[in-house]
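Quick one, probably user error.
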């Protein structure tokens, strides 16, 4: 009987925790590491092994998956003093699923190759809902054959799995995704404001629009949360702000102006100034309303 590849999983946040659960339930031998160790308790009770550092999680792993906050955090868990690279076997594949800059992803690929470690940047889209339902969209940069080796792992986590190009390309596509997500979220917030001011029930408005040409993920997933006044995070304001920093610096490097993304970034600054950095990105609605009043 062929045994499943061994996985070391680093980062059990809003996204990582449900993803790790899917891998464990699918029968992959799983070792987990999370900076706040207590978040791993339920997984350990269900059969995962817990490591005290990323370096202790990596030995024997065929795949080391990371999903942490930003580029410096990925560098720390993979290449820092206790980083996974120090425990990994030659030929292991590191898959970073965080959203970071394409430049950092390319740099990680180069540095890991010096240790005979393959690297895929494989950011995800689909939000907390996609992570819980294993319906994430995964866009990967790196070598095609390495992507094919990782496909059985991706199949447990998501639905649309695409190799989009060489190292860093996954993060470029993710940056494109964040432009659409951010500008669309602003459009949803504007429509909700307009409905409310005109005495239209927001849930009714969402129901109608979801059946027509303005249907979107933000409308169907963020719209109802906003209408209920639910600003708990599936995806935090500060993370969308991080992503738009990546987007806008990439655009600047190519002499591009992205006025929609720039506008959303301004509203997010207002969110942060009002203490809403750790609320869900749907709190954009609050910043928009403040600007309108
Ligand atoms: P989150 O809930 O804040 O989780 C972040 C995770 O990273 C936590 O496990 C945290 O550990 C860990 N971490 C952060 N910095 C670290 C460091 N320096 N060393 C070790 N561990 C560190 O965030 P999330 O929503 O899961 O997002 C994770 C990544 O996925 C981000 O890059 C985000 O942009 C991306 N993403 C998120 C969504 C979404 O809808 N949430 C969708 C697509 C992509 P602690 O538990 O100790 O804090």
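Nope, works fine. Designed sequence:
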């Amino acid at each position: 009987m062929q045994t499943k590849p061994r996985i070391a999983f680093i980062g059990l946040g809003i996204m990582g925790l449900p993803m790790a659960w899917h891998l464990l339930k699918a029968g992959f031998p799983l070792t987990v590491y999370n900076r706040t160790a207590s978040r791993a308790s339920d997984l350990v009770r269900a059969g995962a092994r817990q490591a005290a550092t990323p370096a202790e999680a990596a030995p024997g792993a065929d795949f080391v998956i990371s999903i942490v906050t930003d580029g410096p955090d990925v560098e720390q868990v993979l290449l820092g003093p206790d980083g996974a690279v120090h425990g990994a076997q030659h030929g292991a594949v590191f898959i970073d699923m965080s959203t970071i800059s394409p430049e950092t992803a390319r740099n990680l690929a180069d540095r890991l190759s010096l240790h005979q470690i393959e690297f895929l940047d494989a950011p995800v889209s689909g939000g907390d809902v996609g992570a819980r339902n294993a319906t994430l969209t995964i866009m990967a940069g790196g070598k095609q054959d390495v992507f094919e080796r990782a496909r059985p792992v991706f199949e447990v986590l998501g639905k649309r799995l695409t190799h989009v190009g060489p190292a860093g390309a996954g993060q470029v596509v993710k940056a494109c995704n964040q432009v659409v997500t951010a500008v669309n979220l602003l459009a949803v917030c504007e429509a909700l404001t307009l409905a409310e001011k005109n005495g239209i029930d927001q849930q009714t408005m969402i129901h109608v629009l979801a059946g027509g040409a303005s249907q979107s993920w933000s409308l169907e997933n963020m719209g109802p949360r906003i209408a209920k006044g639910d600003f708990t995070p599936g995806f935090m304001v500060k993370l969308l702000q991080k992503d738009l920093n990546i987007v806008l610096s990439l655009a600047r490097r190519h002499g591009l102006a992205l006025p929609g993304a720039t506008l959303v970034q301004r509203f997010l600054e207002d969110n942060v100034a009002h203490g809403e950095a750790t609320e869900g990105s749907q709190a954009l609605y609050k910043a928009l309303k403040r600007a309108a009043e």
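The chain has a mean pLDDT of 97.
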